[in-house]
C-alpha cells in the first residue's frame, strides 16, 4: 500500500482496492473515493455529511476541536479586532487582503451598487404585510435574477464578479425594505456617505418625519457581527448554495436557496430562537428547570445557541460576540436581564456533566441576539442580518465551485430501503 493511499477491503468478496489519501493545508486527510463505485460497486453512507468533505476549498478553515476559525488563513480574532466588514468581504471574495487602492475601489463599487431597481418597491407589495422577513428575503433575492438578468451568465467571470458585488451591496437595502414593509413605513434609500453597517441602520430606522442619529457603537457592533458571520466553510446554507449552483443555476437563485436553508432553527434561525428561549426562561432562578428539559431525552427542547456540528470547543466567534454584548449593554442600557440569564445559563451549562461530556459550548448565536436587541433590531430580523453577513461567503464559495474546471453537478446517491421491485395491480384488483 502506498504511503498516501488507503486500502479498502470488501470482507464479503475479498476484493481490495487502493484509494488516494489527499492532504490539505490544515485538517485531517481525506480519502478520495471518487472511483469507489467504479472499482468496487459500493457507495458510502454518511447522512448529514459528518465524515464527508464535499469539495476542496481555499476560503475558510475551522478546527472544531481547538476552536480555530481562519478566513483565507487569517484568524477571526485578528480580523474582528483590526479589520472591517467590507475589507473582510474583499478578502473572502478575492483571497487576499486588499491594497489601499484595491480597498478604496471595492468600497466605491459596493457603495454604488446599494440601490435596487425601483421595480422592487412594487414587487414587495405582493407579500403579506405580516410576512416573516426571511420569507421576503428568499423571494426578493431570488427575484434579483429577473431584475439583474444581465449578470447571470455563470460561466462569464465578469458576470460572476458583478453578481457577487450586487448581492453583497444590495442585501442591506433589501433587508431594510423587508423590515419597513412590515412596519408600514416608507422605504429609505441608501446613503453613499455612510459605512456598510451605518447605512443599513439608517435604512432601518430613519423616518421622513424626524432625523435618525446613528450610534457609532451600534454601527461598530453590527460591523463586527457581519465579520463574524461572513463565512463558515461548508455549513448547511453554503452547501445549499453550492449544490443549487452546481446545476448552473444563476447566483441569485443559488443565494435565495441558501437563505431558505439558513432560516431553519438548527442553523441561522437559532439566534432568533435564543432570544425567544431567554424570554421564556424569564429569570435566573428558572434556569435549572430549562437545563433539565434540555437534558431530558423525551423532551424536544434544546438549549438554543448551544452545540455545533464542528465546534467541540468554545466557538471563537461566541467569545468575541460575548465581549461585545457586555460592552454594548454596559454603554447603552447599563443592564439587560436577558444578558444576566444568558451568562448564568452559560455558566451552569458549562459546568454540567451532560454538556461537558457532549462537548456542547455556546455558538455564535448565543450572544448575538443580545446585541441585536440592544441595537433595537426586532427578533425576526436577526436571521436576516446573518444572511447579510454570510452573502460574501456564499458568493466566494459559489465562485470557487463554478470556476472549478472539474465542476460536476452535485448529485448524491442513496441506500434504497423502499419496497423491492413489484408488479402493478389495477385498482379493482387490489
Ligand atoms: N441542547 C441539548 N442537547 C444538545 C444540544 C443542545 N443545544 N445540541 C446537541 N445536543 C445533544 C443531542 O441531543 C445529542 O445527544 P445524544 O448523543 O444523546 O443523542 C448530542 O448532543 C449531539 O447532538 P447532535 O444533534 O447529534 O449534533 P449535531 O452536530 O448534529 O447538531 C446542532 C448540531 C444542530 C447545532 C445542535 O447542537 C443544535 O440543535 N443546537 C441548538 C441549535 C443551534 O444553536 N443552532 C445554531 C448552530 S450554529 C449556526 O448555525 C450558526
Keywords for this entry:
430 residues; 18 helices; three-stranded antiparallel beta sheet; 51% helix; binds acetyl coenzyme *A; mainly alpha
Structure, described:
With 430 residues, the chain is mainly alpha-helical. Helix content is 51%, strand content 6%. The chain has a three-stranded antiparallel beta sheet. The chain has a three-stranded antiparallel beta sheet with strand order 4-5-6. Strand 4 (60-63) and strand 5 form a beta hairpin. The longest helix is centred in the middle third of the chain and has 27 residues, at 157-183. 40% of the residues are buried. Acetyl coenzyme *A (ACO) is lined by residues 266-268, 270, 294, 302-309, 358, 360, 363-365.
Secondary structure category? mainly alpha
**Helix and strand sequence:** EEEHEEEHHHHHHHHHHHHHHHHH
Instruction: State Rg.
Output: 23 Å
Largest sheet: 3 strands, antiparallel
Cα distance, first to last residue? 56 Å
Q: List cofactors, ions and other ligands.
A: acetyl coenzyme *A
Overall pLDDT confidence: 95
Q: Approximately what portion of the residues adopt beta-strand conformation?
A: 5-15%
Low-confidence stretches: none
What is the 3D form? globular
Amino acid at each position: 500500500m502506498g504511503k498516501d493511499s488507503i486500502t479498502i477491503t470488501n470482507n464479503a468478496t475479498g476484493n481490495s482496492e487502493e484509494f488516494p489519501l489527499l492532504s490539505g493545508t490544515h485538517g485531517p486527510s481525506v480519502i478520495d473515493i471518487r472511483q469507489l463505485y467504479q472499482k468496487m460497486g459500493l457507495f458510502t453512507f454518511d447522512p448529514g455529511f459528518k465524515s464527508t468533505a464535499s469539495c476542496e476549498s481555499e476560503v475558510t478553515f475551522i478546527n472544531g476541536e481547538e476552536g480555530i476559525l481562519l478566513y483565507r488563513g487569517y484568524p477571526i480574532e485578528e480580523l474582528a479586532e483590526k479589520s472591517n466588514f467590507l475589507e473582510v468581504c474583499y478578502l473572502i471574495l478575492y483571497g487576499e487582503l486588499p491594497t489601499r487602492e484595491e480597498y478604496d475601489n471595492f468600497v466605491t463599487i459596493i457603495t454604488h451598487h446599494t440601490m435596487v431597481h425601483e421595480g422592487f418597491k412594487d414587487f414587495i407589495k405582493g407579500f403579506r404585510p405580516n410576512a416573516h422577513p426571511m420569507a421576503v428575503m428568499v423571494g426578493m433575492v431570488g427575484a434579483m435574477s429577473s431584475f439583474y438578468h444581465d449578470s447571470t451568465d455563470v460561466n462569464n467571470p465578469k458576470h460572476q464578479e458583478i453578481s457577487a458585488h450586487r448581492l453583497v451591496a444590495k442585501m442591506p437595502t433589501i433587508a431594510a425594505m423587508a423590515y419597513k414593509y412590515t412596519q408600514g413605513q416608507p422605504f429609505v434609500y441608501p446613503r453613499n456617505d455612510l459605512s456598510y453597517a451605518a447605512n443599513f441602520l439608517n435604512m432601518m430606522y430613519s423616518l421622513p418625519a424626524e432625523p435618525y442619529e446613528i450610534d457609532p457603537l451600534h454601527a461598530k457592533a453590527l460591523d463586527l457581527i457581519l465579520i463574524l458571520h461572513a463565512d463558515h466553510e461548508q455549513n448547511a446554507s453554503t452547501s445549499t448554495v453550492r449544490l443549487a449552483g452546481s446545476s448552473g443555476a444563476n447566483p441569485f437563485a443559488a443565494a435565495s436557496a441558501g437563505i431558505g436553508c439558513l432560516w431553519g432553527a438548527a442553523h441561522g434561525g437559532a439566534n432568533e430562537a435564543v432570544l425567544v428561549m431567554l424570554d421564556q426562561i424569564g429569570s435566573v432562578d428558572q434556569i435549572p428547570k430549562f437545563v433539565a428539559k434540555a437534558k431530558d431525552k423525551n423532551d424536544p427542547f434544546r438549549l438554543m445557541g448551544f452545540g455545533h456540528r464542528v465546534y467541540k470547543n468554545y466557538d471563537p466567534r461566541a467569545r468575541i460576540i460575548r465581549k461585545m454584548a457586555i460592552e454594548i449593554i454596559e454603554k447603552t442600557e447599563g443592564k439587560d436581564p436577558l444578558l444576566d440569564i444568558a451568562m448564568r445559563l452559560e455558566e451552569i451549562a458549562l459546568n454540567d456533566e451532560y454538556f461537558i461530556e457532549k462537548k456542547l459550548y455556546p455558538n455564535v448565536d448565543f450572544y448575538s441576539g443580545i446585541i441585536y436587541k440592544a441595537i433595537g433590531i426586532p427578533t425576526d430580523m436577526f436571521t436576516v442580518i446573518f444572511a447579510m453577513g454570510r452573502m460574501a461567503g456564499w458568493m466566494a464559495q459559489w465562485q470557487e465551485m463554478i470556476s472549478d474546471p472539474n465542476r460536476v453537478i452535485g448529485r448524491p446517491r442513496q441506500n434504497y430501503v423502499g419496497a423491492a421491485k413489484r408488479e402493478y395491480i389495477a385498482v379493482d384488483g387490489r
